[in-house]
């Protein structure tokens, strides 16, 4: 019996480019990738390597210039890139939770209202408030339900954002540098909480980061360099061998040198 998890996300020659001053600029070039349900995937790369663009394409926030994003919903595979903007929004509300580096909380809503909002948008009622209270208890903010975001620390705001991303029970979580705006100690605590909550719920988590030590916790690590997926490895028993990291980075640098 195979231990391979069922396929959840499939990227097929995914590309993204735009024109600047009359010249085409390639952000992502023919990215192919398959991700299993329940996995924690780490996207490593420097600023400008295409990590955020890739997450925006997987979520359906942005559309590719070529290729496709396929995500399993129920028993069938949905080609997200074939849907129109409204259909992608509805799909995202049902299936995808997003955690941003800068929290993106609505300042005029309380902590409870921020977390419950995705369910209220999807279902048009207030049934999400009870689940929001439960999630806020789990992230240690059960006593801050009526507070506004500007009364919270950065770490507390990111914990609210994690609860908001989980409120509608998505199959897929996307996190874009979720600890990048926090100090090291707070970032470590937030990361631990995110991994614990996502794994307890059996969620697939794709996280973009430039912090190599996070890779040691992942089921698989992908390196992005100049818009290309140049290397991939799976840490054995959740431990990254330092030599493997150096070797993968070397392949990335060699690939970039050849392109130049």
Radius of gyration: 19 Å
What class, by secondary structure content?
A: alpha/beta
The number of helical segments is: 7
- In CATH terms, the superfamily is P-loop containing nucleotide triphosphate hydrolases
**Percent of residues in β-strands:** 25-35%
Concise account of the structure shown:
The protein is α/β, with parallel strands linked by helices and 260 residues long. It is built from seven helices and ten strands.
Description:
- The chain has helices spanning 51-59, 85-95, 111-123, 128-138, 154-166, 184-200, 242-259, and strands spanning 7-20, 23-36, 40-44, 66-73, 76-79, 96-99, 172-176, 204-209, 220-225, 228-233.
- The strands form two sheets. The chain has a six-stranded mixed β-sheet, sandwiched between helices. It has a four-stranded antiparallel β-sheet with strand order 2-1-4-5, with helices on one face.
- The protein has a single domain (7-259), classed as P-loop containing nucleotide triphosphate hydrolases (Rossmann fold, 3-Layer(aba) Sandwich), CATH 3.40.50.
- 41% of the residues are buried.
- With 260 residues, it is of the alpha/beta class.
- The chain is globular.
- Helix 3 (111-123) runs parallel beside helix 5 (154-166).
- The protein contains seven helices and ten strands.
- Strand 4 and strand 5 form a beta hairpin.
- 35% of the residues lie in helices and 28% in strands.
């Amino acid at each position: 019996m195979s231990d391979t998890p069922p396929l959840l996300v499939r990227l097929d020659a995914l590309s993204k480019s735009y024109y600047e001053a009359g010249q085409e600029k390639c952000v992502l070039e023919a990215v192919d990738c398959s991700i299993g349900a329940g996995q924690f995937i780490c996207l490593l790369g420097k600023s400008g390597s295409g990590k955020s663009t890739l997450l925006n394409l997987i979520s359906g926030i942005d559309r590719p210039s070529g290729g496709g994003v396929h995500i399993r919903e129920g028993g069938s595979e949905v080609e997200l890139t074939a849907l129109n903007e409204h259909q992608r929004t509805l799909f995202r509300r049902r299936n995808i939770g997003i955690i941003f580096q800068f929290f993106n909380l609505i300042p005029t809503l309380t902590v409870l209202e921020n977390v419950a909002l995705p369910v209220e948008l999807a279902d048009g009622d207030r049934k999400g408030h009870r689940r929001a209270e439960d999630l806020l208890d789990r992230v240690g903010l059960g006593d801050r339900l009526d507070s506004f975001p500007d009364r919270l620390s950065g770490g507390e705001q990111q914990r609210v954002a994690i609860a908001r991303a989980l409120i509608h029970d998505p199959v897929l979580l996307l996190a874009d540098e979720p600890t990048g705006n926090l100090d090291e100690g707070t970032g470590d605590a937030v990361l631990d909480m995110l991994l614990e909550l996502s794994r307890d719920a059996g969620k697939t988590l794709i996280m973009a980061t430039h912090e190599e030590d996070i890779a040691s916790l992942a089921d698989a690590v992908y390196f992005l360099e100049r818009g290309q997926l140049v290397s991939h490895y799976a840490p054995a028993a959740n431990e990254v061998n330092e030599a493997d990291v150096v070797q993968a980075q070397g392949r990335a640098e060699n690939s970039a040198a050849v392109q130049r």
